[in-house]
Amino acid sequence: MNKPLSDKEKLISMLTEIYDQLEDLEVVLEASFSDLRKSLDQEEQDKIRESKQKLFGIQQTMDKVNSFSNLELAGEPYNLNWAFNCR
Predict the structure, then answer these.
(1) pTM higher than 0.85, yes or no?
(2) Is residue 33 classed as helix, strand or coil in its secondary structure?
(3) Cα–Cα distance, 26 to 81 (Å, whole number)
(4) Range of the domain at 33
């Protein structure tokens, strides 16, 4: 009867070791995924910032075009080359 108890103890010891390894793996994975989330968040923020800058540039160009279109409607001549070089 002593031998089956010894086998059970070995099995419990092995399972405990596996459990400890899984806990260590969980900590490593958590840190790894945390870093990955931060990296992905930074990439998305950079994309949003770049898109915002592009939209701002387009808006400025459209404002210039609209202001010169308004001048033309008012009967004042304008030069498109000058308008686009005034950035």
Answers:
(1) no
(2) helix
(3) 62
(4) 2-85
